[in-house]
TrEMBL record:
InterPro entries: DUF885 (IPR010281). This is DUF885 domain-containing protein.
Length: 558
């Protein structure tokens, strides 16, 4: 009996339970512990508690019985790799300088409100209690960043400034509004409004105080901290983001090959849209004269239609989309969020569906030429299909493999592969929409080039057609993006800030897609005329999370 309990899957499931008990954001994301009104513990003790849980799990895994079953071996390998990478980041003290404009501990404080239900009055009473806990969460995060100051482990000033600006939108200080927390509380039931309003004011005041602390204390302390993190930290962070020990020189050289290939394809597609015009002129033309949707609600509905049409077209032909997989909601992202669209997966019981979010960045008119492939990426057949299907596999695989064991390069690689698949299947024959797809491919190629280039301070190669021989800087990276990607200035700034604050994460999209394509091609060669793409997709999406060290090989064997 002891051996039956001491298997990798049981150990992995127990780890998910430990993490969910420690981190209310994880429990909210998975739909567990509905009575939990806490905010995440962002203090040094909170990070240490998660690290201690990882160490206990690795100790249990070391003592586990040998696992002859392939599914148990895969679970054990993933669990060991993920926790080892996580502890490497923690033990190096990187948590003390984890301040950035996207997916930082700071953003957990608000994100948790999107994950808990708000249908019943009891839900709103829980929300009021969680609002009252915002000051404690921010005090813990300030203690962590303060410890980073004392140890000389700081984020660069541009990261603190980006977060400070976001907090201005949260509080309403920069927009002249009551702030996000007040607007969120205003949706509650009338009987609880006094309690909710008071709790929202308390949360807003705490955010404003934290913003002032960033301005008055952190920014002066961070002065002189370089944007580039250097090779050692970069490879450590990239390991966590990709599940692989990367060769950055190989990835950098490969990305330049992809850059030149895709740039040529974009020039050809631009000629179909506006004969005789270059790519940037064509993009400007599409932004000013192409199809557009006006208003937040209208664009939300339009994006929902894109996903609904994809579900109807793909179900039964290229994928099996049944039950809760068919439900995905389009939403507008709240102010002060990431500049890029994003997806939030469903709870394990699907009571909360998968949701896509569009940041408006102050816009009221939305050109659609770039949005179609992006919503194939975020919705169907991208993130929603993969992550919602994984949630449905929780009975067959370990919860760890289908939830918190996720590897960014695997999931983002699939989503980028999904965009390419829709192009291959003929969903992007319209020249404007196809140029939008290629522009998004180019963005992910640029990410590999400038992310590696900036952090390792590489030079632009000869023959690049752009500042050859110059060493990458944030300014040069911004100019490169402006020259080759059709994004507005605010999006470009947010992108560069993101790469510098989250080293090694942004390269996973394109490197992950490469692994998916390599795995598919190898499987196609192995099966020959018997290769069935729908069968392969079903098997591939049923594996659970994998790092890039394992992904292509595993896909090839299907």
């Amino acid at each position: 009996m002891a051996d039956e309990l001491n298997t990798p899957r049981r150990i992995a499931d127990a780890h998910v339970a430990q993490v969910a008990a420690l981190d209310p954001l994880v429990s909210a994301r998975l739909g567990l512990h509905p009575e939990d009104d806490r905010q995440p513990d962002l203090s040094p003790d909170g990070f240490d508690a998660l690290a201690d849980a990882a160490r206990r799990t690795l100790t249990a895994l070391d003592a586990a019985s040998p696992a002859p079953e392939p599914v148990e071996q895969t679970c054990a390998r993933l669990l060991r790799e993920r926790l080892t990478a996580e502890l490497a980041v923690h033990d190096a003290g990187d948590n003390f300088r984890q301040l950035r404009n996207v997916n930082s501990p700071l953003h957990k404080v608000r994100r948790i409100f999107h994950l808990r239900p708000t249908a019943a009055e009891d839900d709103w009473a829980m929300t009021a209690r969680r609002l009252r806990n915002v000051p404690r969460a921010l005090a813990g995060y300030r203690a962590t960043l303060g410890e980073g100051i004392s140890r000389g482990l700081l984020s660069a000033p541009r990261q603190a400034e980006a977060c400070r600006a976001q907090l201005g939108a949260w509080t309403g200080q920069d927009t002249g509004t009551a702030g996000w927390f007040a607007e969120f509380a205003a949706n509650g039931p009338e009987r609880l409004r006094p309690e909710l309003d008071a709790a929202a004011r308390r949360a807003t005041a705490a955010v404003a105080a934290f913003r002032d602390w960033l301005q008055d204390v952190y920014l002066p302390a961070a002065d002189g901290t370089p944007d580039a993190v250097g090779r050692e930290r970069y490879l450590r962070s990239a390991r966590w983001a990709t599940g692989a020990d990367l060769d950055p020189a190989e990835a950098y050289a490969w990305a330049w090959e992809e850059f030149h290939r895709t740039a040529a394809e974009m020039r050809r597609e631009a000629g179909r849209v506006l004969p005789g015009a270059d790519v940037l002129t064509t993009m400007t033309h599409l932004n000013e004269h192409g199809h557009a949707v006006e208003g937040e609600e209208a664009v939300r509905d339009w994006l929902q239609q894109i996903m609904d049409e994809a579900v109807a077209a793909l179900d039964g032909t290229h994928f099996d989309l049944s039950g809760p997989l068919r439900r995905v909601e389009s939403r507008i992202a709240p102010p002060g969020t990431s500049p890029a669209p994003y997806y939030v997966g469903p709870s394990l019981d699907f009571s909360r569906p998968g949701r896509t979010y569009l940041p408006t960045l102050g816009r009221t008119v939305f050109p659609t030429w770039q949005l179609v492939s992006t919503w194939y990426h975020e919705g169907v057949p991208g993130h929603h299909l993969q992550l919602a299907r994984r949630a449905g596999l929780a009975g067959r695989l370990s919860r760890y493999q289908v939830t918190i064991g996720s590897v960014g390069a695997d999931t983002e690689g699939w989503a980028l592969y999904a965009e390419r698949l829709m192009d291959e299947l003929g969903f992007l024959t319209d020249p404007a929409r196809r140029l939008g797809y290629l522009d998004k491919q180019m963005l992910r190629i640029i990410r590999v080039i400038v992310d590696i280039g900036m952090h390792l301070e590489l030079t632009v190669p000869a023959g690049a057609g752009f500042h050859p021989g110059e060493r990458w800087t944030p300014g040069l990276a911004t100019a490169f993006m402006a020259a080759h990607h059709g994004s507005p200035a605010a999006r470009r700034t947010g992108e560069i800030d993101r790469y510098l604050g989250w080293p090694g994460q942004a390269i996973g999209y394109k490197l992950g897609e490469r692994a998916w394509l390599q795995g598919r091609e190898a499987a196609r060669r192995r099966h020959g005329a018997d290769f069935d793409l729908k069968v392969w997709h079903t098997a591939a999406l049923s594996q659970g999370a994998l790092g890039l060290d394992d992904l292509a090989e595993s896909l090839a064997a299907l």
